[in-house]
Amino acid sequence: MTRAKPFTEQTVLITGASRGIGAAIAERFAMVGMNVVIHYRESHEAANEVARSCMKHGAKVLTVSADIRSREQINKMKEKLEQRGTVPDIIVNNAGIAHYGLLSDVSEEDWDLIMDINLKGAFLCTQAFMTPMIQQKYGRIINVSSIWGISGASCEVVYSTAKGGMNAFTKALAKELAPSGVTVNAVAPGAVSTEMMAGFQAEEKAALENEIPAGRFALPDEIASLVYFLALPESGYITGQIISPNGGWLT
């Protein structure tokens, strides 16, 4: 028997929520007055700015800092939330970094950094917060992946590998947690208009847009809307899915 609270009284934890897609996700949940936990690593003022935007919607907001590569720091973050009586019903594993370059130029340190932030961080955060969801027989785990985790991308081998691992993590964990009423899904966007695209030249961006049938990049709000949908109670039969909002780029 589920002991879940009404949806608008639930708590959502979004990692990497100080900017881009993460910030848009935080504000989308805040629009219905939910309890929103904004995680960041170093961007303190940016996280506070997102928090202020969320509070304008009447949401209860908490900002927390942690390096998600560290189990110790994640446990400290968990303790801080517990001290405030905050237990996430929804986890959005959004934190991630991009990497561009030939595989022949990738150092072992580069590999470890990309894997630790994009994949290990999702594992550690999920493991830290999943037990209360299992106990209440209700929860949502939503991983923000990438189109490249599905198709792979030249000169983004390490990033593609990390996101491919996240997709496999999603599918396997969904089977493990389905009997407990916890869904696990991934949203794998195509090109999104965020700071992650800052490394591309104007000509490169134009060439990418020409490849996309929709003729444009996605807006962060569009990705946030899909994440929000997957978190709804009525989305409880959707689990183990990798959903790619990509404007028809990959079908």
Keywords for this entry:
251 residues; alpha/beta; Rossmann fold; seven-stranded parallel β-sheet; 7 strands; 45% helix; SDR; Sc_DH/Rdtase_CS; oxidoreductase activity; oxidoreductase
Q: What report would you give on this structure?
A:
The protein has helices spanning 20-30, 44-55, 71-83, 108-136, 148-151, 157-177, 202-211, 220-231; strands at 11-14, 35-40, 60-65, 90-93, 139-144, 182-187, 242-243. It is α/β, with parallel strands linked by helices and 251 residues long. It has one domain: NAD(P)-binding Rossmann-like Domain (Rossmann fold, 3-Layer(aba) Sandwich). The chain has a seven-stranded parallel β-sheet, with helices on both faces. Helix 1 crosses helix 8 (220-231), helix 3 (71-83) packs parallel to helix 4 (108-136) and helix 4 (108-136) runs parallel beside helix 6 (157-177). The mean pLDDT is 95.
Brief summary:
This is 3-oxoacyl-ACP reductase FabG. The chain is of the alpha/beta class and 251 residues long. 45% of the residues lie in helices and 14% in strands.
Q: Spatial order of the strands in the main sheet?
A: 3-2-1-4-5-6-7
* Poorly predicted segments: none
Text of the CATH class:
Alpha Beta
**CATH level 4 superfamily:** NAD(P)-binding Rossmann-like Domain
The CATH topology comes to Rossmann fold
Total of helices: 8
Question: What Rg, in angstroms, do the CA atoms define?
Answer: 17 Å
Could you say which overall geometry the principal axes of the C-alpha atoms support?
globular
Q: Which structural class do the helices and strands define? A: alpha/beta
The averaged pLDDT comes out at 95
Q: How many domains make up the coordinates?
A: 1
- Straight-line N-to-C gap: 38 Å
Q: Percent helix among the residues?
A: 40-55%
- The H-and-E topology, N to C, reads as EHEHEHEHEHHEHHE
Give the assembly state of these chains. single chain
Largest sheet: 7 strands, parallel
Q: What would CATH call the architecture?
A: 3-Layer(aba) Sandwich
Total DSSP E strands: 7
Strand residue content: 5-15%
Organism: Paenibacillus sedimenti
Domain Ketoreductase: 10-190
Keywords: Oxidoreductase
GO molecular function, one term: oxidoreductase activity
